[in-house]
Amino acid sequence: MGVGAADATDEYGIPIIPDPTDAAQRKRQAIIDSALAEFLAEGYSAASMDAITSGSGVSKATIYKHFGSKERLFLAVIGGLLPRTYAGLESCTATLVQAPDLREALIDLTAAWARILLRPDIMSLRRLVIGETERFPQLGQLWYRVSYDMINGPLTEAFAELNGLGRLATPDPELAVQQLVAVTLGLPQLMSTFAPGTELAEARLTDLVTSGVDLLLARYAPHPAA
Q1: Strand partners, 9
Q2: Is 193 in contact with 130 (CB distance < 8 Å)?
Q3: Higher pLDDT residue, 13 or 135?
Q4: Once rounded to an integer, what is the mean pLDDT over residues 18-35?
Q5: Distance between CA atoms of residues 84 and 149, nearest Å
Q6: Residue 15 — φ and ψ, nearest 5°?
Q7: 105 vs 189: CA distance, rounded Å
Q8: Cβ contacts of residue 6 below 8 Å, gap of 6+?
Q9: Which residue of 9, 57, 122, 184 could cross-link 110, Cys pair, CB 3.0 to 4.6 Å?
Q10: Which of 143, 149, 155, 153 is nearest to 110 (CA)?
């Protein structure tokens, strides 16, 4: 028996839900909003389809008509949200390469990224995906790809250009990017992920980002001309 449209998935195994229109669109969005709130609050296993039904204002039959099952609903809702998670991040390649003060540009960039990554809604989603990665590995794979495409990928391109221009000595730009992310975003993200009640003051965040950038630039300072 062939795979029907209701069973179609993308390369990560995330259900492909056709876009409905008009009233169907409004019902679907109500389901997504209610399901997201329930999954974030309870996780996958404890999430109640009755609660999702009540919150969406549609019948349980309508939910199953749109999404097929609780598992597909979870994958569709969370998988559909992940690519939009870092929508506020802008490509950094041209900004860094053209910046007159590379240190200042790196500090501004990583600080802006940190503020987005540490938003409560994104951290709640991150904790949910981490908790469900063993059950739904495709979500972990998708999150990794989204993170790479929005952060590591463009930054690697920028570092490669800066290396070619002699403004950085980064023969392995990808490694340098991984190190920069680790020393600027790593600790704040780790704290917010596993100690969600911990508040990170803006001044402390700025200090962490600044010291991380300085550490990277000290390591990859261009070699003086002979």
Answers
A1: 15
A2: yes
A3: 135
A4: 80
A5: 12
A6: -55, 140
A7: 21
A8: 68
A9: 184
A10: 155
- Kindly indicate the confidence band of residue 89, based on its pLDDT and cuts at 50, 70 and 90: low
Report whether pLDDT(34) > 50: yes
Burial class from Cβ neighbours inside 10 Å (0-12, 13-18, 19+) for residue 50 reads: exposed
Q: If we measure between CA atoms, which residue out of 191, 193, 183, 190 comes closest to residue 215?
A: 183
CA–CA separation, 225 vs 145, rounded Å?
39
Lookup: tokens for 28: 């679907």
User: Is the pTM for the entire model greater than 0.70?
Assistant: yes
Q: Give pLDDT tens digits for 134-182.
A: 999 998 898 888 888 888 888 999 999 999 999 999 999 999 999 999 9
Query: What's the token pair of residue 126?
Result: 């991150």
Q: What is the 3-state secondary structure (H, E, C) of the chain?
A: CCCCHHHCECCCCCECCCCCCHHHHHHHHHHHHHHHHHHHHHHHHHCCHHHHHHHHCCCHHHHHHHHCCHHHHHHHHHHHHHHHCCCCCCCCHHHHHHCCCHHHHHHHHHHHHHHHHCCHHHHHHHHHHHHHCCCCHHHHHHHHHHHHHHHHHHHHHHHHHHHHCCCCCCCCHHHHHHHHHHHHHHHHHHHHHHCCCCCCCHHHHHHHHHHHHHHHHHHCCCCCCC
Alpha carbon distance 223, 212 (integer Å): 20
- Residue 42 corresponds to which tokens in the numbers above? 């309870």
